[in-house]
Design goal:
CATH topology of the largest domain: Nucleotidyltransferase, domain 5
Largest sheet: 5 strands, mixed
CATH class of the largest domain: Alpha Beta
Order of helices and strands: HEEHEEEHHHEEEEHHHEHHHE
Shape: extended
Number of domains: 3
Distance between the termini: 49 Å
Structural class: alpha+beta
Number of helices: 11
Radius of gyration: 25 Å
CATH architecture of the largest domain: 2-Layer Sandwich
Helix content: 25-40%
């Protein structure tokens, strides 16, 4: 706070790591000022070459590597540190080996016991090994995260809604998109295909409004993907369960979780999704294929 408020330095900290950004002509002075202020405050900072690295367009902080854009560029790239990923992989491999061959690697089990959510005593199960391995696999294969620079372009306004009426006889969805920058608006709406409703009610439940609210989000992102790409979006959704599922990209309700994964493109384009999750062994069929999904009624608001 002192560095930013009093000395106008662009600096922040993540735990005990300090990150400072400055224009090249001012970098040396800004660096010396930050160290001097910390020294006057009684803070001891590492002065070794391993920690005290010069300014660079590519730097590391807390296991992540940040690459600033080249001249004229607008995208910051964030990737995981390769050595950190390899370290995690070694721990998971030891964990799996300990489970398979007599649980001899107790240290690895202790390092990973928190993933089991069972306190200090972890129950090693094939499911736990599988979940941790899958999570690591996704982390190893993840593409760099791209952070776009701030744009003066106003955000797209997107309103989505779902409705369940007449004791599940009418389950509908719709959306309205307003693009104030390009002065255009679109709308769509339709009945949600019956196979989805059958899937959501297969266990006898009658409340499917959360799934009906998430469904138009998935359809809107797929239908208007070219308009939404690279734009900031203000998304209006009036169901708290659906909203939190999309914000967290997780829900303990499998149907909501499945739709949230679709919304974030985990299964690829919606038109190419062929089969429901293998976890579900119900014979509902291919619920998200193009023939069943259909095309919602679309329209453009004329000026």
């Amino acid at each position: 706070m002192i560095l930013t408020r009093l000395f106008r330095l662009v600096v922040t900290n993540f735990f005990d790591d300090f990150c400072q950004i400055e224009l090249a002509p001012l970098s040396n002075g800004a660096w010396q000022t930050a160290e001097l202020v910390l020294s006057l405050l009684g803070w001891r900072v590492s002065m070794g070459d391993e920690k005290r690295k010069p300014f660079s367009k590519r730097f590391e902080i807390l296991g992540a590597i940040v690459t600033l854009p080249s001249p004229g560029g607008t995208t910051i790239e964030v990737t995981s540190k390769e050595s950190r990923l390899l370290q995690l992989k070694q721990q998971v491999d030891l964990y799996a080996a300990g489970h398979t061959y007599g649980r001899t690697t107790q240290l690895a089990c202790q390092l990973l016991h928190k993933f089991g959510g069972q306190g200090p005593s972890v129950t090693v199960t094939p499911e736990l090994v599988h979940v941790v391995s899958e999570a690591l696999s996704l982390l190893m294969e993840a593409k760099p995260r791209l952070v776009q620079s701030w744009s003066e372009c106003p955000p797209v306004l997107l309103f989505t809604d779902g409705a369940v009426e007449d004791s599940l006889q009418s389950v509908t969805h719709g959306a309205v998109l307003v693009d104030p920058w390009k002065q255009r608006s679109f709308f769509m709406g339709d009945h949600i295909p019956g196979d989805f409703v059958k899937l959501w009610t297969r266990s006898g439940k009658k409340q499917v409004i959360a799934q009906a609210e998430i469904f138009p989000v998935v359809i809107a992102k797929s239908t208007w993907n070219q308009i939404l790409e690279g734009r900031s979006i203000l998304w209006f959704l009036d169901n708290e369960s659906a909203r939190m599922s999309l914000v967290r990209n997780f829900s303990p309700i499998l149907d909501s979780f499945f739709l949230a994964e679709c919304a974030y493109g985990r299964f690829g384009p919606i038109q190419e999704l062929v089969q429901q999750s293998a976890i579900e062994k119900q014979s509902i069929g291919q619920c998200l294929t193009t023939p069943i999904l259909g095309v919602p009624k679309l329209g453009q608001v004329s000026s």
